[in-house]
Amino acid sequence: MFFDTHVHFDRFVADGSFSELLERAGEAKINKMVAIGGSPEANALSLKLAEEHPAVLLGCAGYDRDLATEKYDLAGLRAFVANPLVRAVGETGLDYYYTAETATEQKKLFAENLALAADFKKPVVVHTRDADEDTLSLLKDYARDWKGDAARLGVLHCFTRDTTFAREILDLGLMISFSGIVTFANAASLREVVSYIPDDRLLIETDSPYLAPVPIRGKSNEPAFVVHVAKQLAELRGKSIDSIASLTAQNARMLFAL
Questions:
Q1: φ, ψ for residue 199, nearest 5 deg
Q2: Which domain holds residue 44?
Protein backbone atom coordinates (compact mmCIF):
# COMPACT_ATOMS: atom_id res chain seq x y z
CA MET A 1 0.00 0.00 0.00
CA PHE A 2 1.21 3.51 -0.89
CA PHE A 3 0.92 6.79 1.03
CA ASP A 4 0.87 9.99 -1.07
CA THR A 5 1.97 12.67 1.37
CA HIS A 6 1.19 15.75 -0.73
CA VAL A 7 -1.94 16.29 -2.83
CA HIS A 8 -3.73 19.51 -3.83
CA PHE A 9 -7.33 18.41 -4.35
CA ASP A 10 -8.78 21.82 -5.23
CA ARG A 11 -8.81 21.35 -9.00
CA PHE A 12 -10.26 17.84 -8.84
CA VAL A 13 -13.13 18.97 -6.63
CA ALA A 14 -13.78 22.00 -8.84
CA ASP A 15 -13.94 20.02 -12.08
CA GLY A 16 -16.01 17.16 -10.64
CA SER A 17 -13.35 14.46 -11.04
CA PHE A 18 -12.64 13.92 -7.34
CA SER A 19 -14.67 10.71 -6.93
CA GLU A 20 -13.07 9.08 -9.96
CA LEU A 21 -9.64 10.14 -8.72
CA LEU A 22 -10.24 8.41 -5.40
CA GLU A 23 -11.35 5.27 -7.22
CA ARG A 24 -8.21 5.20 -9.35
CA ALA A 25 -6.07 5.79 -6.26
CA GLY A 26 -7.69 2.81 -4.56
CA GLU A 27 -7.14 0.63 -7.61
CA ALA A 28 -3.44 1.63 -7.56
CA LYS A 29 -3.23 0.67 -3.85
CA ILE A 30 -2.82 4.23 -2.58
CA ASN A 31 -4.71 3.96 0.69
CA LYS A 32 -3.65 7.19 2.41
CA MET A 33 -3.26 10.75 1.12
CA VAL A 34 -2.63 14.14 2.71
CA ALA A 35 -4.93 16.90 1.47
CA ILE A 36 -2.62 19.89 1.53
CA GLY A 37 -3.68 23.33 2.73
CA GLY A 38 -1.99 26.68 2.20
CA SER A 39 -4.77 29.26 2.12
CA PRO A 40 -8.08 29.75 3.96
CA GLU A 41 -9.91 28.10 1.07
CA ALA A 42 -7.47 25.19 0.74
CA ASN A 43 -7.49 24.67 4.50
CA ALA A 44 -11.29 24.53 4.60
CA LEU A 45 -11.37 22.06 1.71
CA SER A 46 -8.70 19.88 3.31
CA LEU A 47 -10.67 19.65 6.54
CA LYS A 48 -13.92 19.00 4.69
CA LEU A 49 -12.39 16.14 2.71
CA ALA A 50 -10.79 14.67 5.83
CA GLU A 51 -14.19 14.75 7.55
CA GLU A 52 -15.91 13.08 4.58
CA HIS A 53 -13.17 10.46 3.92
CA PRO A 54 -11.46 9.85 7.28
CA ALA A 55 -10.20 6.38 6.33
CA VAL A 56 -8.26 7.71 3.35
CA LEU A 57 -7.56 11.45 3.65
CA LEU A 58 -5.65 13.47 6.25
CA GLY A 59 -6.21 17.16 6.83
CA CYS A 60 -3.48 19.79 6.67
CA ALA A 61 -3.68 23.56 7.22
CA GLY A 62 -1.24 26.40 6.79
CA TYR A 63 -0.58 29.73 5.13
CA ASP A 64 1.75 29.49 2.17
CA ARG A 65 4.19 32.11 0.88
CA ASP A 66 1.65 33.51 -1.62
CA LEU A 67 -0.20 35.11 1.31
CA ALA A 68 2.88 36.86 2.68
CA THR A 69 1.91 40.32 1.47
CA GLU A 70 -1.81 39.92 2.12
CA LYS A 71 -3.80 40.49 5.28
CA TYR A 72 -4.11 37.01 6.76
CA ASP A 73 -6.01 35.73 9.77
CA LEU A 74 -3.71 33.88 12.18
CA ALA A 75 -6.55 33.19 14.60
CA GLY A 76 -8.43 31.49 11.80
CA LEU A 77 -5.41 29.36 10.97
CA ARG A 78 -4.97 28.44 14.63
CA ALA A 79 -8.58 27.20 14.70
CA PHE A 80 -7.90 24.92 11.74
CA VAL A 81 -4.66 23.56 13.21
CA ALA A 82 -6.40 22.81 16.50
CA ASN A 83 -8.79 20.39 14.78
CA PRO A 84 -7.77 16.74 15.43
CA LEU A 85 -8.35 15.87 11.76
CA VAL A 86 -5.64 18.36 10.76
CA ARG A 87 -2.47 16.30 11.08
CA ALA A 88 0.11 18.84 9.92
CA VAL A 89 0.77 22.54 9.30
CA GLY A 90 1.28 23.48 5.68
CA GLU A 91 2.22 23.81 3.22
CA THR A 92 4.30 26.81 4.12
CA GLY A 93 7.78 28.05 3.44
CA LEU A 94 9.88 30.30 1.26
CA ASP A 95 10.12 30.76 -2.50
CA TYR A 96 12.52 33.36 -3.86
CA TYR A 97 12.45 32.08 -7.45
CA TYR A 98 9.58 34.34 -8.48
CA THR A 99 9.15 36.75 -5.55
CA ALA A 100 12.47 37.36 -3.86
CA GLU A 101 11.33 40.94 -3.25
CA THR A 102 8.87 39.66 -0.62
CA ALA A 103 11.52 37.70 1.33
CA THR A 104 10.99 39.67 4.54
CA GLU A 105 7.24 39.08 4.50
CA GLN A 106 7.67 35.44 3.55
CA LYS A 107 10.03 34.80 6.45
CA LYS A 108 7.59 36.40 8.90
CA LEU A 109 4.70 34.26 7.67
CA PHE A 110 6.81 31.08 7.64
CA ALA A 111 7.93 31.76 11.22
CA GLU A 112 4.31 32.19 12.29
CA ASN A 113 3.39 28.84 10.75
CA LEU A 114 6.34 27.19 12.46
CA ALA A 115 5.30 28.65 15.80
CA LEU A 116 1.83 27.14 15.38
CA ALA A 117 3.32 23.75 14.52
CA ALA A 118 5.48 23.90 17.64
CA ASP A 119 2.54 24.99 19.80
CA PHE A 120 0.34 22.12 18.65
CA LYS A 121 3.18 19.61 18.27
CA LYS A 122 2.11 18.90 14.70
CA PRO A 123 4.65 18.43 11.90
CA VAL A 124 5.24 21.14 9.32
CA VAL A 125 5.13 20.60 5.55
CA VAL A 126 7.85 22.82 4.09
CA HIS A 127 8.23 24.32 0.63
CA THR A 128 11.52 25.94 -0.31
CA ARG A 129 12.91 27.21 -3.59
CA ASP A 130 16.06 29.31 -4.00
CA ALA A 131 15.90 30.08 -0.27
CA ASP A 132 18.15 27.48 1.33
CA GLU A 133 19.90 29.72 3.87
CA ASP A 134 16.76 31.39 5.20
CA THR A 135 14.82 28.13 5.23
CA LEU A 136 17.52 26.44 7.31
CA SER A 137 17.78 29.39 9.68
CA LEU A 138 14.07 29.38 10.46
CA LEU A 139 13.92 25.59 10.71
CA LYS A 140 16.80 25.63 13.20
CA ASP A 141 14.76 27.96 15.43
CA TYR A 142 11.74 25.69 15.00
CA ALA A 143 13.71 22.55 15.88
CA ARG A 144 15.06 24.31 18.97
CA ASP A 145 11.52 25.21 20.11
CA TRP A 146 9.99 21.81 19.29
CA LYS A 147 8.79 19.91 22.36
CA GLY A 148 7.03 17.03 20.61
CA ASP A 149 8.28 13.68 19.33
CA ALA A 150 11.75 14.31 17.89
CA ALA A 151 10.89 12.22 14.82
CA ARG A 152 7.82 14.28 13.94
CA LEU A 153 9.15 17.77 13.21
CA GLY A 154 8.07 17.72 9.59
CA VAL A 155 8.99 17.14 5.99
CA LEU A 156 10.80 19.05 3.27
CA HIS A 157 8.40 18.27 0.43
CA CYS A 158 9.22 17.93 -3.27
CA PHE A 159 12.97 17.83 -2.62
CA THR A 160 15.09 19.17 -5.50
CA ARG A 161 18.37 20.22 -3.92
CA ASP A 162 21.76 18.55 -3.41
CA THR A 163 23.21 16.16 -0.84
CA THR A 164 24.66 18.99 1.24
CA PHE A 165 21.24 20.57 1.73
CA ALA A 166 19.69 17.15 2.35
CA ARG A 167 22.25 16.53 5.12
CA GLU A 168 21.38 19.81 6.81
CA ILE A 169 17.65 19.05 6.66
CA LEU A 170 18.23 15.55 8.04
CA ASP A 171 20.46 16.90 10.82
CA LEU A 172 17.58 19.09 11.97
CA GLY A 173 15.37 15.99 12.21
CA LEU A 174 13.04 16.47 9.25
CA MET A 175 12.04 13.93 6.63
CA ILE A 176 12.57 14.35 2.90
CA SER A 177 9.94 13.65 0.26
CA PHE A 178 10.50 13.02 -3.43
CA SER A 179 8.01 13.82 -6.17
CA GLY A 180 7.76 13.01 -9.88
CA ILE A 181 10.67 15.37 -10.52
CA VAL A 182 13.02 12.52 -9.59
CA THR A 183 11.89 10.70 -12.76
CA PHE A 184 12.61 13.61 -15.13
CA ALA A 185 15.39 13.24 -17.69
CA ASN A 186 17.09 16.44 -16.47
CA ALA A 187 17.12 15.35 -12.80
CA ALA A 188 20.27 13.21 -12.79
CA SER A 189 21.83 15.20 -9.94
CA LEU A 190 18.68 14.78 -7.85
CA ARG A 191 18.73 11.03 -8.39
CA GLU A 192 22.20 10.98 -6.83
CA VAL A 193 20.66 12.23 -3.57
CA VAL A 194 18.08 9.45 -3.32
CA SER A 195 20.38 6.72 -2.01
CA TYR A 196 21.73 9.13 0.63
CA ILE A 197 18.43 9.44 2.52
CA PRO A 198 18.07 6.97 5.43
CA ASP A 199 15.19 4.51 5.20
CA ASP A 200 13.41 6.05 8.18
CA ARG A 201 13.43 9.59 6.71
CA LEU A 202 12.11 8.85 3.21
CA LEU A 203 8.67 9.85 1.89
CA ILE A 204 6.98 9.93 -1.50
CA GLU A 205 4.40 12.30 -2.99
CA THR A 206 2.81 13.41 -6.22
CA ASP A 207 2.20 17.13 -5.51
CA SER A 208 -0.88 16.55 -7.67
CA PRO A 209 -2.07 17.99 -9.97
CA TYR A 210 1.46 19.19 -10.73
CA LEU A 211 4.71 17.44 -11.72
CA ALA A 212 3.37 14.27 -13.31
CA PRO A 213 6.17 11.69 -13.37
CA VAL A 214 7.59 9.91 -16.38
CA PRO A 215 5.96 8.14 -18.24
CA ILE A 216 2.96 10.51 -18.06
CA ARG A 217 4.89 13.74 -17.80
CA GLY A 218 3.00 16.68 -19.27
CA LYS A 219 -0.41 15.42 -18.16
CA SER A 220 -2.35 16.28 -15.02
CA ASN A 221 -0.89 14.43 -12.07
CA GLU A 222 -2.93 12.43 -9.53
CA PRO A 223 -2.26 10.20 -6.50
CA ALA A 224 -2.43 6.97 -8.51
CA PHE A 225 0.79 8.03 -10.21
CA VAL A 226 2.83 8.03 -7.00
CA VAL A 227 3.60 4.42 -7.94
CA HIS A 228 5.99 5.76 -10.60
CA VAL A 229 7.87 7.78 -7.99
CA ALA A 230 8.16 4.68 -5.80
CA LYS A 231 9.39 2.65 -8.77
CA GLN A 232 12.17 5.16 -9.47
CA LEU A 233 13.26 5.19 -5.83
CA ALA A 234 13.24 1.40 -5.74
CA GLU A 235 15.57 1.24 -8.74
CA LEU A 236 17.92 3.85 -7.31
CA ARG A 237 18.07 2.27 -3.86
CA GLY A 238 18.28 -1.34 -5.04
CA LYS A 239 15.03 -2.34 -3.36
CA SER A 240 11.69 -3.74 -4.44
CA ILE A 241 8.83 -1.38 -5.10
CA ASP A 242 6.89 -3.16 -2.34
CA SER A 243 9.61 -2.39 0.18
CA ILE A 244 9.65 1.28 -0.84
CA ALA A 245 5.86 1.40 -0.52
CA SER A 246 6.03 -0.19 2.90
CA LEU A 247 8.81 1.89 4.43
CA THR A 248 7.53 5.23 3.07
CA ALA A 249 4.01 4.44 4.28
CA GLN A 250 5.37 3.49 7.68
CA ASN A 251 7.33 6.74 7.85
CA ALA A 252 4.27 8.77 6.87
CA ARG A 253 2.11 7.06 9.46
CA MET A 254 4.65 7.91 12.11
CA LEU A 255 5.08 11.52 10.94
CA PHE A 256 1.33 12.18 10.91
CA ALA A 257 0.69 10.26 14.14
CA LEU A 258 -1.57 7.55 12.73
A1: -55, -40
A2: 2-255
* 64 close to 39: Cβ distance less than 8 angstroms: yes
Asked if residues 157 and 127 have their Cβ atoms less than 8 Å apart, the reply is yes
Residue 156 parent element (H or E): strand 154-156
Tens digits of per-residue pLDDT, 189-220? 999 999 999 999 999 999 999 999 999 998 99
Quote the pTM value. 0.97
The CATH number of the domain where 18 resides is what?
A: 3.20.20.140
Residues 6+ apart with CB under 8 A from 156: 126, 128, 169, 174, 175, 176, 177
Please state the domain count of the chain: 1
Distance (Å) of CA 59 to CA 73, 103, 131, 162, 204: 19, 28, 27, 30, 17
Residue 22 host element (H or E): helix 18-27
